[in-house]
Amino acid sequence: MSTDQTERETGSQFLPKFDDKGLLSAVVQDADSGAILMVAFMDQEAVDATLNTGIAHFHSRSRGTLWKKGETSGNTLQVEQILVDCDQDALVLRCLPAGPTCHTGAVSCFYRRLEDGILQPVKS
Amino acid sequence: MSTDQTERETGSQFLPKFDDKGLLSAVVQDADSGAILMVAFMDQEAVDATLNTGIAHFHSRSRGTLWKKGETSGNTLQVEQILVDCDQDALVLRCLPAGPTCHTGAVSCFYRRLEDGILQPVKS
Prior knowledge:
Two copies of one chain form a homodimer.
Chain A (H helix, E strand, L loop, with lengths): L2 H8 L13 E7 L5 E7 L1 H10 L3 E4 L4 E4 L8 E8 L5 E8 L14 E4 L2 E4 L3
Protein name (chains A, B): Phosphoribosyl-AMP cyclohydrolase
Subunit structure (chains A, B): Homodimer.
Main location (chains A, B): cytoplasm
């Protein structure tokens, strides 16, 4: 294992590992309920904006720009804790949401479960 | 909103939306504790293998191949439930892990938190 990889996995330095598009995965988890609210991507700019403001920012792959979640709807995500995975290419943002996280109005984007090949509503 | 998008967001059809590399995001959550154990990617082959076996399979971006989690270590993930997000480009696999999920031996790959710019161990 390279020194870089050892430091990344066992060290205390935050060395986020972005992919060839400059992105890493970000999972938003409700800090109170533990429910997974959404999954998105962050680039360095989104990581910096999130750390600087305490409000979750992502990189919109469709628009190719910085995306402050809730900028229009007001349904922002206040970041309580950030967890970092072994190889530092994924983050969990434990958040307090100001309102429904999903643009559909659902509390979580994960409002359906797959059962026997069919999507069914999840009780929330 | 296009018919395709409406069906994808509100319908009961499973229409997984893969990106330009043929991948979608997959988050593994412990079905009992709600802890997030790992984040990876799936292609159509990994989705099919997971649905056919009930054991989590992913696509290894580094090796470019199908990856049955735990094939070597024995630390497989038994899938109890699959949640699908609004635009069907992310899945949550609620799993019962056979052992530690992380290759480091940690229960979860998310064994560190970011605090004041420094990574600190998370109590598990």
